[in-house]
Amino acid sequence: MVSTLESLAAPLIRIRLELLYTELLECHAEYTQFSSESEQYFKTLRDALPDQLQHTVFLYEDAQISLQSILERSIYIQGFKDALHLFSESELQNSSI
């Protein structure tokens, strides 16, 4: 059931998160500032490394992006489950009134 929910929700999650990031960049100054600072710091670190470590930095960044993607999906699915649970609890309480 859980894997089915995740596979069915995957396109929705991807689209929703893309919209969220766009909204954050457009409307949330603090997010935009931290995002820009983070990119600049990472670029500075990457540029300071010798050539033989550039591929390692690429692999590190790729692994971090993959971890973030897994975390985002997990958080989204858990939030969805929590909402269903709260709705279910609310329905049970309302039906016993």
Return the structural class.
mainly alpha
C-alpha end-to-end distance: 31 Å
**What amount of the residues lies in strands?**
under 5%
Mean pLDDT: 87
Explain the overall architecture:
This protein is mainly alpha-helical and 97 residues long. The protein is 94% helix and 0% strand. The radius of gyration is 20 Å and the shape is elongated. It starts with a helix and ends with a helix. The relative contact order is 0.09. The mean pLDDT is 87.
Task: Describe the structure concisely.
The protein contains three helices and no strands. With 97 residues, the chain is mainly α.
Describe how the helices and strands are arranged.
Elements: H1 2-27, H2 29-48, H3 51-95
Helix pairs in contact: 1-3
What descriptors fit this protein?
mainly alpha, 97 residues, 94% helix
